[in-house]
């Protein structure tokens, strides 16, 4: 892997920021995230900056940047906190020609419909698909990393979501 000067500077700045903000802090236990102060103590997650990797092969660049390739154009927020027993909902909207298919994953494993997990999909025009994933009621086991993956014959695109539960403290 070759790094140019600007990439090396970005990596160095990120590493310095990460080390300054993560050492010497005790991990937090329990559910939570954004609303940790309101609902209880949350887990500590390390921050990650999206990495843009240059395509080393021209065929890869052609594949991932194809004008008709699947592209996710709208999606839910990255970080989601839910209450136990309530509904978790994620949304993805993708475009491409031919119309992409959307597949949902949790912690890298494909999800299938069952009693508490459902996917609703609908189309718009010849090139757009919308997909909504719901879990109702949510349990502690539903915390984790979710992905929606859109693909067609020209490209694959995905979005990741992180969930954690909130606990009420009185």
Automatic annotation (TrEMBL):
Residues 58-169 form the Ig-like domain. The keyword Signal applies. Pfam families: I-set (PF07679). CDD domains: Ig (cd00096). SUPFAM superfamilies: Immunoglobulin. It comes from the Eukaryota. Keywords: Disulfide bond, Immunoglobulin domain, Signal. The keyword Oxidoreductase does not apply. InterPro entries: Cell_Adh-Cytoskel_Orgn, Ig-like_dom, Ig-like_dom_sf, Ig-like_fold, Ig_I-set, Ig_sub2. This is Ig-like domain-containing protein. It comes from Hypothenemus hampei.
